[in-house]
Amino acid sequence: MLQGWIQIVLTLLILVAITPFFGRYMARVFQEQRTILDPILNPVERFLYSLVGVRAKEDMTGWQYARAILYCNVVMGVLIFSIIMFQQFLPLNPTGIPAPTWDTALHTTISFITNTNQQHYSGETYLSYASQMWGLGYHMFTSAATGLAVGIAFIRGLTGRPLGNFYVDLIRAITRVLLPISIVGAIVLIAAGVPETLAGPAIVPTLEDPAISQAIARGPVAHFEIIKNLGENGGGFFAINSAHPFENPNGLTNLITLVSILSIPTSLIYTYGIFANNIKQAWLVYSIPFVILVGFIIITAIGEYNGNPAVNALLGVDQAPNLEGKEVRFGWAQSALFAVITTASMCGAVNSLHDSFMPNGGFSTLSNLFLQIVFGGQGTGTAYLFAYLILAVFITGLMVGRTPEFLGRKIEKREVVLASFLILLVHPIAILIPGAIALAFPDQLAGISNPGFHGLSQVIYEYASAAANNGSGFEGLGDSQPSPIAIAGGATTSATALWWNLSTCFSLLAGRYVPIAALLLLADSMARKQPVPATTGTLRTDTGLFTGVTIGVILILGALEFFPVLALGPIAEAFQIARGIG
Amino acid sequence: MTSMNDSPKPFRVPSGTRDSRRHTPKVEMKGLYQRAVKESFVKLDPRIQVRNPVMFVVWVGTLVTLLLTFDPNLFGTLQADVNQQRLLNGLITFILLFTIVFANFAESVAEGRGKAQADALRATRSDTIAKKILPTGSVQEISSTELRRGDLVKVVAGDMIPADGEIIAGIGSVDESAITGESAPVLKQPGTDIMSSVTGGTRLLSDELTVRITADPGQGFIDRMIALVEGAERTKTPNEIALTVLLAVLTLVFLIVVANIPPITGYVASFLSTATSEQAAADLRNGASVAIMISLLVALIPTTIGGLLSAIGIAGMDRVAQFNVIATSGRAVEACGDINTLVLDKTGTITLGNRLAAEFIPVNGHGMEDVAQVALDASVFDETPEGRSIVALAERSGAKVSFDPKLAEGVEFSARTRMSGTDLDSKEIRKGAVDAIRGFVRSRGGHVPPTLDEAYERVSKLGGTPLAVCQNNEIYGVIYLKDIVKPGLKERFDQLRRMGVRTIMLTGDNRITASVIAQEAGVDDFIAEATPEDKIEVIRSEQAQGKLVAMTGDGTNDAPALAQANVGLAMNSGTQAAKEAANMVDLDSDPTKLIDLVTIGKQLLITRGALTTFSVANDIAKYFAIIPTIFAAAGIGALNVMGLKSANSAIISALIYNALIILVLIPLALKGVQFRPLTADQLLRRNILIYGVGGVIAPFIAIKLIDVILPFS
Amino acid sequence: MSFAREASRAVRSTLVLWVLTAIIYPFVMIGIGQLVFPFQANGSIITNTQGQPVGSALIGQPFTSDRYFNSRPSTTSYSTADPKKDESKVLQTGVSGASNLAPSNPALIDRIKGKADPDPEKAIEGDIPRLQKADVKPTADLVYTSGSSLDPHITPEGARAQISRVAKARGLQPNQLEDLIKQNTDGRSLGIFGEPGVNALKLNLALDALKPT
User: Fold this and answer.
1) What is the homologous superfamily of the domain B356-482 according to CATH?
2) Domain assignment present for A210
3) What is the pLDDT of residue B233?
């Protein structure tokens, strides 16, 4: 047991340790200061800018920034949708997979363009290498860079700077952050055993019975894998994602995966500290998600370590880890840690199956998705966190006898509308409304595989994952159409899959673009305000006291709205298991 | 020295302690509560309720539960005893109704005070007969409502002044107690810039005045004041609007949350019917019945702050009014809390309006007696307090008037000569600014002794004002006029500094004098040798740094600065121009009130924030009361940490708490959270502990208590 | 900014970044992988003494007989199929997958405990009865299905629990098998991260190479 906790603590320490370095690097990149890669990248970027047609110094307003994202994403979406739908006519299809159903392609497109990577398909059986490399792999860079750009623009606005230019930020995020790390990371992953090949599956006779053959799926995995994690995309090359030995072969790759998942959202808070010239506040803000993260890790890990009492009884032991849906090489500790980090960060890659977690895990992962700020998504998580800070300032700041201000900028109607809309309203609309509809028709729409309270969690998790742009799932849900190969073999399409593909598209889009627009407008409006100098009468937001207040506000405003579904989902399931099943 | 300091200002320094000075015109408070109770029910009108999104949701919910009281199965049949359902729904309806009524009551009480005050004012405004002076010079008696701006009227002793105006001729004492509550009459005369304006509804006690009317009927000061205290013109302040938006969003969020519970529990119930029992399924479905969902919704939405928000705002305005200050808008009151910088005139605000002679300093080899004598002679005709203090000091030093005043002629002070004095046949006796006297003596062929500069500097270094005295071409000495800093100001400036408010003193004095006074008074900064134009410059430069500035003023040349300042407090004794430019008018004409206004503004915001925090923090307990009990059939009864008796008891207890807490908090909303001059950090710590942590804990205790008392099983 | 100009930028940036991240980057990485790490880049395929590929060092295989150390239960039977009866075309692409059974799902307990049913189609043998029949003390990893269905490992305890059975079936000394298990155990990465696991395929390959004493 101790061994497991040591791994968890060490992983978190590594994350904290790299934060200042990476955070400072990103600040330098987006403040256009000198970095070591300048000699190579300056000419490259100049070339790219000229191809795209932007000038580096052309600042955008919040609305222009948002519109640029929208246009850009529409064009990218059309490109990826076309690649998927025409995959059988494109090269790099060694397994000869026809086009998936239109709704699968549409859902996949929207899911990847929104940095969610919710997968209602299995990589091996639905998509060609071309679709993965040219379609999905591409979006892993652009959607992550879009999120990062939004985060940076938000930080700029909050600290009173012009928001910057979306295309410049997009390009710099790729050339200076995502791509260099991906190149190094991919090489390390290949060395560790992650395949990177265009060859089709290897067919071998099995050792035990040579009459039976094993198909070893392969592909250009390593380059895809690293950006999947670094960009908090989470869409695995293979169906089973980071649990697949080819995506995540050992403890070291698991560590690389975890660190790359969480490094950008954690470091971006430090980047904020540099922009705001207040490192102390950065660390205090950092501590908010960190404390929540640690809490959820503990809750989850205890559940997995103690295991399923019903199975333990059958095994005749008091305690045995719950290894259902888990790999031996990761065990309870790395699996629990991964589950919490992947849902905290909106990555959505999994190295074990969340559906099979004890209710503790369901509670933690769901809560992460509801909160969205336990470091949160690429760029957007940090922005959400500060939007919460703004709300906390607004609610409690009055108590110091001044109209509330954050970083010297008054929080007025416009900011409250944007922040509360963004943080409080979008999420319940995108999760609870479709969730309630699906649950009202459990057989026709929901396709629940685990009955009872857990089924409720399955449905809510799917929408929460979509709305939070996470992408992980309680995967038992009947949300996938049959594979193109099966359909070619005569399988019929499923109504529940159609419902899931289309209804989650609503949550995906609502959870991505509405907040992005709101964040940018919020940043814009903050940037335009005349800052008020701080005095002893000003509410200071860089104190432990205010940090504690913010945690309270986050838990009350962000989590309480989901208390009823948590109560009837994982909490009720926990009591059910405690009482003994059946 | 500039004219700013030389002309004495007729400030009235109200007597008594600060608190005892909070007086409004006699207001009839009897029947206030009865009227408010009646109003609370009148306000159930949906057209009024719809203005408050939070309470409107409660209102609609009440209507639905009322329908459900008549037919509990209106929205689908529940597997439960209909009569019991009816009783429960009836109870819910009743409590919800009172939730709204209590909120209305809070608003009505707050408004009632303003209305009572307005009524008292309105009584003074009853039509009077005005003596209009026609262009021909004859006088015509007309109703005051027929007067128009620019008309001239004659007012004789005993008359009510028919409308706001400016005195053109005559001197008279005016009883302004109707608006200020101050019983001592005020002397009014034309041309003095400050004392020349009169207010309609006040009464002339002596003599006769000719007044030019400056306001059309219904536009006068009293009319505006009535509208304001009555709340007729009350528009929501920016912060109030922002808060309303947040509350509306929270309401909408919980509406979505609650609306989605029935289908979700429906799914769980169908599972329970096979996995556990039909009874459990029915219990769970009943737990998500429409009446209970409405109850849950009302418990979760921020009714506490939603119900008290407008009362807090009205009461804040009212508190300002009780301080005898009229604010033109709530926005101005709110801005008071945000003030970063106070720009204060030295004279009358920081120091008592009058400097007093403290010492005679002989120069040029003259003796003390000589100086006293000359100073006395020079001041015989000087009726200003300074002049009188010189006379008093001289007489204490043994000097006596050495001539027959009837044979002498007083020389009045003028801004040009900066001297005053007395002319006898053979003697010209003068006192005045050192420079001016120096020039005077030289022009008469005298010489200026070197010791004059020494004396001048000595006085300056002490923070005093030196006045030189001379007789013909001979300088006798220097009078040390001492500024008296108002008692208690230093402590108040300290408090302000702790609250993050900086004070800047403006004075016409030279740097040395100004710095001494500044230090003595404890202001943060000062501007010496300031002209009225400097005032607006200071304000602009502070505002350019993003600061909010408050200032006081009374003269016409203060008007631009009053308009420029975020909070401009005009003295009621000031000119019409100043009063119109300002967003607040102090009826007592006490410039130190600006400091009190900062406190009132902060108190208003703190009250709003405290009740919002309290309201939001309450949700935890309400959740833990209701959710585990109504979903007990799902096996989560262990979450019922309060051990409430049943779902029905929990719902009713939470709702009763929810309604009562509004009633309990009304006094706090009206009186405001007690303000302490602490730093923001200290204030936050304190208020979070009381209203945040307290808001989490209090309802747990209260709901449990109500549950114990209730006769539910 | 005109719509045309904005749209043009959107299209141009899409294409430019596509070439950079979807063409140049992956092909460079494939090139590096194939040149520098050809073994890993092609799936760590291991061959027998004849040079025939027998599997991947990283991917598990189904082992259920007494003669082999059994691997973990797998929902896809380790992506295997009979080439003659591969209706679901497993061998066309290779598959992975998990049970996704919730801890509260009675089906999980049924699978582990077994369930008698008059209809033999519906009867479930159960992981624990199966292990008990084979005289193996059940451990968690041997009754729970893995995440990927391709888990190459079993826990050292799971392996040791099978020693006596395998030793009996093959006529080997248990201590020989102990050594074999130790040799084929993948430790924690850097001695810290992850859990030690016995690679079942490698262990069983080594077992086949072992001569009975």
Assistant:
1) Calcium-transporting ATPase, cytoplasmic domain N (3.40.1110.10)
2) no
3) 55
- For chain B, the average pLDDT equals 84
Q: Alpha-carbon dihedral of residues A396, A400, A401, A404, nearest 10 degrees?
A: -50
Portion 120-159 of C in contact with A at CB < 8 A: 128, 138-141, 143-155, 158
pLDDT at A20: 97
Residue span of the structural domain in which A151 resides:
2-204+215-579
Cross-chain Cβ contact B246/A416 below 8 Å: yes
Catalytic status, residue B119: no
Q: Count of alpha carbons within 13 Å of B183, Cβ hemisphere only?
A: 3
Q: Is the pTM of this model over 0.95?
A: no
Across A407-416, B12-21, B325-334, least confident range: B12-21
> Does B249 contact A425 at a Cβ distance shorter than 8 Å?
yes
Instruction: Tell how far CA A366 is from the center of its chain.
Output: 13
Q: What was the pLDDT predicted at A440?
A: 92
User: Across the interface, which of C12, C36, C154 has its CB nearest the CB of A53?
Assistant: C12
Q: Would you tell me the crossing angle of helices C174-183 and C200-209 to the nearest 10 degrees?
A: 130
Q: Which two tokens stand for residue A563?
A: 């208390």
Inter-chain CB proximity A400 and B623 less than 8 Å: no
The total number of structural domains in chain A stands at 1
Q: Say how far residue B132 (Cα) sits from the centre of its chain.
A: 37
In CATH, what number does B127-215 get? 2.70.150.10
* Contact in structure between B220 and B200 (CB atoms under 8 Å): yes
Q: Is A541 within a domain?
A: yes
- Residue A209 within any structural domain of the chain: no
Task: Tell me the average pLDDT across B440-454.
Answer: 86
B59 touches chain A (CB under 8 A): no
Classify each residue of A315-333 as buried b or exposed e, where b means 16 or more C-beta atoms within 10 Å of its C-beta: beeeebbbbbbbbbbbbbb
Q: Is residue A569 one of the residues assigned to a domain?
A: yes
Q: Which residues of A428-462 are buried (b: 16+ CB within 10 A; e: fewer)?
A: bbbbbbbbbbbbbebeebbbbbbbbbbbbbbbbbb
Question: What backbone torsions phi and psi does residue C59 show, to the nearest 5 degrees?
Answer: -115, 135
Q: Report whether pLDDT(B22) > 60.
A: no
Interface list for A 376-415 with C (CB within 8 A): none
Chain A residues 519-578 with a CB less than 8 Å from chain B: 530-533, 535-540, 543, 545-546, 549, 552-553, 556-557, 560-565, 567-568, 571-572, 575-576
Q: Which residues pair with B420 in a beta bridge?
A: B431
CB pairs under 8 A between A and B: 219
**Rounded CA separation B662/A511 (Å):** 36
The band of C1, judged by pLDDT with boundaries at 50, 70 and 90, is low
* Long-range contacts, stretch B639-644, CB < 8 angstroms, 24+ apart: B639/A567, B639/A571, B642/B700, B642/B703, B642/B704, B642/B707, B643/B704, B644/B703, B644/B704, B644/B707
Q: Could you state, in order of their start, the residue ranges of all structural domains in chain B?
A: 18-116+232-319+603-709, 127-215, 356-482
Which ranges constitute the DSSP H helices of A331-425? 331-344, 359-371, 380-397, 413-420
All residues at 6 or more sequence positions from B199 whose CB lies less than 8 Å from its CB, including other chains:
B161, B164, B176, B179, B220, B221, B222, B572
Per the CB < 8 A criterion, the answer to whether A405 and A397 are in contact is yes
Chain A window 184-243: which residues touch C at a Cβ cutoff of 8 Å?
186-187, 190-199, 201-208, 211-218, 220, 222-224, 238-240, 243
Q: Across the interface, do A240 and C96 touch by the CB < 8 Å criterion? A: yes
Chains near C, with 3+ CB pairs < 8 A? A
DSSP label of B165: E
Identify all chain A residues contacting B305, using CB atoms and an 8 Å cutoff. Answer: none
Q: Is the pLDDT of residue A458 over 50?
A: yes
- Structure tokens belonging to residue C83: 């080439």
Q: B438: phi > 0 → left, psi -120 to 50 → alpha, else beta; which?
A: alpha
